[in-house]
Design brief:
- The strands form six sheets. An eight-stranded mixed beta sheet has the order 13-14-12-15-16-11-19-20, with helices on both faces. The protein has a six-stranded parallel beta sheet with strand order 3-2-6-7-1-8. The chain has a five-stranded antiparallel beta sheet with strand order 24-23-22-21-25.
- The radius of gyration is 29 Å and the shape is globular.
- It is about 45% helix and about 15% strand.
- It has about 750 residues and is α/β, with parallel strands linked by helices.
- It binds a DNA duplex (15 and 10 nucleotides) through α4 and α18.
DNA sequence: ATTAGGCGATTTTTT
DNA sequence: ATCGCCTAAT
């Protein structure tokens, strides 16, 4: 077994302990993924059929990457592994088994936005005012209840206040409607399998027997339903291996339950615990900072992380004036460090607590023509036009899907407003019909205008036609012709604004994605495509080959690593983020989130704060995060900038005045050690780059004064066309030209 | 009575 | 950028 030579003794132990319950407590960067990969490869190598192994990961990307590596080690037979996120694996099982629960195999998966829409609709029909009862809050309460396996009846019985009482009523109706729509929300994908296994012992036996080996990654972020689910499944063989790190538990808001770790220890008396404490990722400095920080948490399993990696550089603090300044200074550091460390843009990650923070960072990157990719944020599949197109496709697959029907009933505009849809819904409820079939009986609905009747009937015919065509033409043809016929493409094209054309593009992109999907898989169905689309996570789309700076939330950063990491917005109220209550547990989760961020960094870590920040539509004064005090001073440096730095001119260099008179990046005394590192003769010029605009007057040391009349290129290859008073037009590489802005 | 379109407020983190 | 509310238009 040659691969064992690549592992340390603890890792080998974790790979080889395949029988019985095992818990691997794996610190950040301790080679956890490697252990999981080799463990599965090892299982296959000793003769376990791949299809008898269930491996649950946190993202689909992690699953497919791991699978590829396993295929490389032990060959094609490992393709049959059951591997993916909880949600995708159990969605797959439900597709086969859900008829036992009264669902059709073509059920639709509702994402958070769909489920919120349904809840709002229900609140309207139950007469629960949305002003008094926040639909979001109701949705998250229902989701919370589901994650703890509390059903609507039980929830209503426990309701103590008015809010809970209303939530209970909405919850009951919500469940009913999901069933009517033949739809499941994210929580159902975990809850329904439990129900299935409870009610159908034969099915339970089938899966218990199938999954002889069960592995779970990121165990600290599993919730109660996930815990019950795997415990149920693994009961027969008890070959269950969980891998996780309590210090990286950051999903309590989603129902992740730390009890899952403690209970696991209680559930299995013969549990073998293996600790992976050697870190292969970060410098000693970064690891020490993380360690000091996390020691401030009371709730934790104590562990002592260590590394053979070098001491490394100190962590650099950037104290910025405001969010704009923060963006600019980070961009400047990206330029400097890419030069100094000779690394690519893809080696940089900028992290933040809230998605809203990405804006000022994006502005700075865009202005300086630095390519970047943003993880999450406004996701492709969340865009209105994409969701609209998807809704049409969803209805063809599942004609009962009322939520999708309501979404597109009046898009493109067909004269079906709120009142008409209200009538349709009432009629459908009365006769126990789906909205689509009710639309087919529009003539029987009282009080509907003639126009609305015609529209409903046309809509019904439209879907009837495509339901039929579905069996006759290819996936690609069907979707293309259908979306074409809705008229939404023409509508977007005719509008001809930059925005509408972008939307048009997005719809086209969706259709291409579908074609590609159809071409790639021989078993490709519209159902499968729609399921994939519902369950993609933000990081799944991260392309490691693109050379661009990565921007993401601290949550998305879990499991990733980068040579240089910037963690931004280290301010009270932002990290830790304040909401209504901030008790110890919440602070500790925020601290873990920061911990996750720090431990993503391999060689260099930057932490930034802004004195003022634009939030909720106004500029607020911010104070530094309490977490900064928890990192020992000797591990950090402060990079001070006095004023905006301009390009040096030769004259400045000669006089040596530049650094003091005009301000520059300058290190505080304790940063001297860092500054004395061998630095390439490269200047940090980015602050000035953003000042460079067409029309600006500039000075060149040889050509004198001139005016910028054109700018092109990006990064190091950025050029400017300058009209000089003395010599006329010149095309200059900014990197060498050393222009001074006047 | 309905619907269409404009304007203003609003974002914690996510499968 | 999206959602909800308001007013003008049909």
């Amino acid at each position: 077994m040659s691969y064992l030579s690549e592992l340390n003794p603890k890792q080998i132990e974790a790979v080889k302990a395949v029988e019985g319950p095992v818990m691997v407590v794996a610190g950040p960067g301790s080679g956890k993924t490697r252990v999981l990969t080799y463990r599965i490869a090892h299982l296959i190598q000793i003769g376990v059929p791949a299809y008898r192994i269930l491996a649950l990961t946190f993202t689909n990307k992690a699953a497919s990457e791991m699978k590829e590596r396993i295929v490389k080690i032990v060959g094609e037979k490992s393709r049959q592994l059951w591997m993916g996120t909880f949600h995708s694996v159990f969605a797959r099982i439900l597709r086969v088994e859900c008829e036992l629960l009264g669902f059709g195999r073509n059920f639709t998966i509702y994402d958070t936005a769909d489920s919120l829409g349904l809840i709002k609709n229900i609140m309207n029909s139950l007469g629960v005012p949305q002003q008094q009862y926040n639909p979001q809050a109701i949705r998250s309460r229902i989701s919370g209840a589901k994650n703890q396996m509390i059903g609507p009846t039980e929830y209503a019985a426990q309701a103590l206040d008015l809010f809970a009482e209303k939530t209970g009523r909405v919850y009951a109706e919500y469940d009913r409607r999901l069933r009517q729509h033949n739809a499941m929300d994210f929580d159902d994908l975990l809850l329904k399998p439990i129900e299935l296994f409870q009610r159908h012992k034969k099915t339970l036996e089938k899966y218990r027997d199938l999954f002889r080996f069960v592995l779970i990654d990121e165990y600290q972020d599993t919730n109660r339903t996930q815990y019950v689910l795997i415990k149920t499944i693994a009961e027969k063989y008890r070959n269950i291996c969980v891998v996780g790190d309590d210090a990286q538990s950051i999903y309590a808001f989603r129902g992740a339950d730390i009890r899952n770790i403690l209970d696991f220890q209680n559930d299995y008396s013969d549990l073998k615990t293996i600790r992976l404490e050697q870190n292969y990722r970060s410098t000693k400095t970064i690891l020490a900072a993380a360690d000091h920080l996390i020691k401030h948490n009371q709730d934790q399993i104590s562990k002592s992380l260590w590394t053979e990696n070098p001491e490394g550089e100190t962590i650099t603090l950037l104290s910025c004036d405001d969010d704009r300044d923060e963006g600019n200074r980070i961009v400047a550091r990206v330029f400097d460090e890419s030069r100094r460390l000779k690394i690519d843009l893809k080696d940089f990650a900028i992290m933040y607590r809230t998605n809203a923070q990405s804006r000022s960072l994006e502005d700075a990157l865009r202005k300086n023509s630095i390519p970047y990719i943003i993880v999450g944020g406004i996701e492709f599949y969340q865009r209105k036009e994409v969701k609209d197109a998807l809704a049409y496709l969803r209805i063809v697959v599942n004609p009962q899907d009322g939520e999708s029907f309501l979404r597109i009933a009046n898009y493109p505009v067909r004269g079906l407003g709120a009142a008409s849809l209200e009538r349709l819904q009432a009629f459908a409820a009365e006769r126990n019909l789906s909205l689509l079939s009710a639309a087919g009986k529009a003539n029987e609905i009282d009080g509907l205008s003639q126009r609305a009747k015609v529209s409903f009937l046309q809509l019904f015919d439209f879907f009837t036609k495509y339901e039929k065509l579905k069996r006759e033409i290819s996936l690609t043809e069907l979707s293309r012709s259908m979306i074409e016929e809705t008229g939404m493409l023409a509508l977007l094209k005719d509008e001809a604004t930059a925005e509408s054309l972008e939307r048009w593009q997005n719809v086209q992109e969706l259709l291409s994605a579908l074609s590609e999907f159809a071409a790639q898989r021989d078993d490709a169905t519209l159902e499968a495509f729609l399921q994939d689309v519902s369950l993609v996570s933000a990081v799944d789309n991260l392309d490691p080959n693109r050379n661009a700076v990565t921007l993401m939330t601290l949550h998305s950063a879990k499991g990733l690593e980068y040579p240089v990491v910037f963690i931004t917005g280290l301010e009270e109220g932002l990290l830790p983020l304040y909401n209504s209550s901030l008790d110890r547990k919440e602070i500790e989760e925020e601290r873990r989130l920061f911990y996750v961020g720090i431990t993503r960094a391999m060689t260099k870590l930057y932490l930034s704060t802004a004195r003022m920040r634009f939030r909720y539509g106004e500029t607020a004064y911010q104070s530094p995060s309490r977490f900064l005090e928890e990192i020992p001073d000797e591990l950090t440096d402060e990079l001070v900038v006095r004023t905006k730095r301009l390009f040096k001119t030769r004259a400045d260099e000669r006089s040596g005045k530049f650094a003091f008179d005009r301000g520059a990046s300058e290190f505080s005394p304790k940063a001297a050690a860092f500054h004395s590192d061998p630095e390439p003769d490269y200047e940090s010029d980015i602050d000035a780059l953003e000042l460079l605009k067409i029309g600006k007057l500039v000075e060149h040391s040889d050509f004198g004064q001139g005016k910028i009349i054109g700018l092109s290129g990006e990064g190091d290859s950025m050029k400017a066309v300058v009209d000089f008073d003395s010599v006329g037009r010149k095309n200059l590489m900014l990197k060498y030209a050393r222009l001074k802005v006047l």
